[in-house]
Amino acid sequence: MEELSILIGGKAGDGIRQAGQTLARLLNRFGYRIFFYDDYPSLIRGGHNFSIIRASKKKIQAHKEKVDLIAALNQDTVEKHKHRLNPGGVILYDSKKVEAQGVGIDFMGLVKESEGAPIMRNTAALGALAKVLNIEWEMLERVIKDTIEKAVDLNLKIAQSAYNQVEKACLSVRNLNQKMLPLVSGNEAIALGAVQAGLNMYIAYPMTPASAILHYLAEHEDDLGVVTIHPESEIGVALMALGAAYAGARTMVGTSGGGFALMTEALSLSGQGEIPIVFIVSQRPGPGTGVPTYTMQGDLSFVIHSGHGEFAKLVLAPGDAEEAFYLTGLAMNLAWKLQIPCFVLSDKHLSESIFSFDADPDKVKPEDPLLWDGQGEYKRYLDTQNGISPLAFPGNPAAMVKATSYEHDEYGITTEESEQIVRMQKKRLRKKKTMEDELARYEQVKVYGDPESKTVLLCWGSTKGACIEVAEELGLKVVQPLVLEPLPIEPLKKALSGADKIIDIEVNTTGQLAKHVSAYGICIDDMILRFDGRPFTVDFLLEKVKEVLS
Amino acid sequence: MTTVKELETYAQNTWCPGCGNFGILNSIRKVLVDLEEEGLDLKKLVLASGIGNHAKIVDYIKVNSFYSIHGRVPPPITGIKLANPDLVVIGHAGDGDAYGEGIEHLIFSAKRNIDVTFIVHNNQVYGLTTGQFTPTSPAGFKGRSTPGGSPEEPLNPIELMLSSGATFVARGFSDKPKHLQLLMKAAVKHQGFAFIDVLQPCFTFFNTYDFYNQRVYELTDKAHDSSDREAAFARAGEWAYGEGERIPIGIFYQVTKPTYDEKLLKGRIPVNLKPVNIRSILEKHI
């Protein structure tokens, strides 16, 4: 098979995500390109969790509603998802717990026989899945050894007994003879991009869906050469990061909308004090606590307009793991070059989904900021033509470095004089032009699908994967701005030129990108909005686009 | 060697004549000069402040500084110290800053035992916003937001810091500069979170010079064992920032414990960390 989708479901605590990831890894070893979607409510035990593993010969960045195989660890999985089965699809289920038609295996019985823990039902399911997919035992054995850290022998025993219980394969996975790619989540790609651009310190308070950045960096601190800190609150996080950056450390913080709301005070200080900082904002449905473990693109307007006072900021919106890697690296480098706050706007769908990762690590490296040359007397806020004042850090034997939240003169001493205020406001504003010049060196707007098509799907962030496949199916063009602030007007207008129908596709209630671009005279003809916390799948979006076009 | 005069900047001082902040400013300048003579490299020193009259102190001293925002002095100084543990960091804050807006950060700084000094300019009133009650104003304080008198009891910051795990807890008085300088010097030399609550009269909105001068007395080694936490609590309870006859000043408590920066960094210096190649990490993702 050149493409297949598998859904594995159970209740929270059943180890669904882990089994799904191991399965994704197994398929990856056959050269498949992977997209992994994880769906779970905000609880630790109970509820209904499921993962969809889509594997394809071609590069994919989205999943589909329909699947070929369902592995059910509980009855809910069957009831909630059996409508998804493609013709010829199969349900594999825990036969003592679940009633269904298909391949029933007594997972719990096998676990008990081997004296395993109840959670190891997921390993039994994995063993049975491998056989159903016609995968040789040795392949699964190797992946389990590479993936599972505890009780490897026991897990192998359970997997093998389940493998042997399945009488015959129902589907057939084959080796596609393609290069195996690393499987990387959006959050991991963000972490790695930052590291590659010289990240020294990552500071964060846990908040879904950004927490995994903290977990990943904390777990690999020594390998990655990064110090991670979990402070008392998001307010503490952002201010601690500014202190560290003032001292010369490349620093990043990560959170979701509610946590970022608390950081906006520090954001504004970063604007006045010209202190570099990278914010990762991974969106989830709001307002308020909203729906913590689901996805939304509802904070675009908030982030673009965040922080009191007027100052330059950069907002980048990656749509897949590779873009997350490159753009986080870019955010880090530009934060330091321009001494401004830079944002990477993600969402649950990008942050927690897993992608086949084909980025070139060497394309991201730490770029030096403008450092003081040691000549004359140091002025932290030297008024320059492009607005960038050379940096020096405390400890420099020749410099006195004064950073401040107050309006200030070139030395960083407080001022309330009108001429000084105007001078410094103008100096900071000039950095916006410098930023735009800098950004012009990079691809700011991406185009996919049929470049000649007069119908354009306009999207940003994690919706791109579904949009690309729909456009390929229907012969449409996709336009995806990677930079959302400052909006790259010229490249965007160029990408949209010749279009007679622009359909804006977003995961929010009001079409925030549509509103954003309309301020520059770009008119949207139709909008397709989804806001139930779920991302666009390829087949779901296809139907919606067809409705709009009919 | 730097002189006290050389530590002055060109910034015009805008405190009221008679302001208790002068006692603190003159003391810290003198302490910095003394510490330099004892080997401290002033280029490795960073002063920080919050927002309020106290905060102007960083404009008045010619050293590295981070002029933060209201209530947010502990987080940036923690970040500075963690990014480069070679730096010596002193935070200044007002009582509104430290005990109101930013109290969570103060408690956590003490809990962690981060190796910085934290000096609170405690005048028991908001000065720069022209006279409202603060977390340490006495009950019944008549300010512009509480014309009928504050309905709240004051917080006792000495007790708060002892409870939070601070390893150096002291109280000074801006009108006793020699004593205050001893405290400041001991605080900077202390390895761990060193806290000084400095009683500092506000000449314009809450003039407490006479009140304090009649009541303060110095804690001596003879009369008080600063390694005894129970004794420290007993001394802290002698005055609850309201009425009272005797106000102890001096070091209430001092012990040595491993610092947060030591435990967290384990010898690493973030500003000197070199980037790694992520290829080997990516291989583990296959």
Description of the structure:
The complex is a heterodimer of chains A (550) and B (286). Chain A is an alpha/beta fold and 550 residues long. Chain A folds into three domains: 3-165, 3-Layer(aba) Sandwich (Pyruvate-ferredoxin Oxidoreductase, domain 3); 183-363, Thiamin diphosphate (ThDP)-binding fold, Pyr/PP domains (Rossmann fold, 3-Layer(aba) Sandwich), CATH 3.40.50; 445-549, 3-Layer(aba) Sandwich (Rossmann fold). Chain A has 19 helices and 21 strands. Chain A has helices at 16-28, 75-81, 107-113, 121-132, 137-147, 152-165, 186-196, 211-219, 221-224, 234-246, 257-273, 300-304, 321-338, 348-352, 418-439, 464-474, 489-496, 512-518, 538-549, and strands at residues 3-12, 33-39, 46-56, 67-72, 85-94, 103-105, 183-185, 201-204, 227-229, 251-255, 277-283, 314-316, 341-347, 354-356, 402-404, 445-449, 455-459, 477-481, 483-485, 501-506, 526-529. An eight-stranded mixed β-sheet of chain A has the order 6-5-4-1-3-2-14-7, with helices on both faces. In chain A, α1 runs parallel beside α4 (121-132), α3 (107-113) packs across α4 (121-132) and α7 crosses α8. The longest helix of chain A is centred in the last third of the chain and has 22 residues, at 418-439. Chain B contains ten helices and eight strands. Chain B has helices at residues 21-37, 74-83, 95-101, 103-112, 157-164, 177-189, 209-215, 229-236, 260-265, 279-283; strands at 45-49, 64-67, 88-94, 117-122, 168-173, 194-199, 216-218, 247-254. Chain B is globular, with a radius of gyration of 20 Å. In chain B, 32% of the residues lie in helices and 16% in strands. Chain B is of the alpha/beta class. Chain B has a single domain, classed as Thiamin diphosphate (ThDP)-binding fold, Pyr/PP domains (Rossmann fold, 3-Layer(aba) Sandwich), CATH 3.40.50. In chain B, β7 (216-218), α8 and β8 form a beta-alpha-beta unit. The N and C termini of chain B lie far apart (60 Å). The mean pLDDT of chain B is 96. β15 of chain A pairs parallel with β2 of chain B.
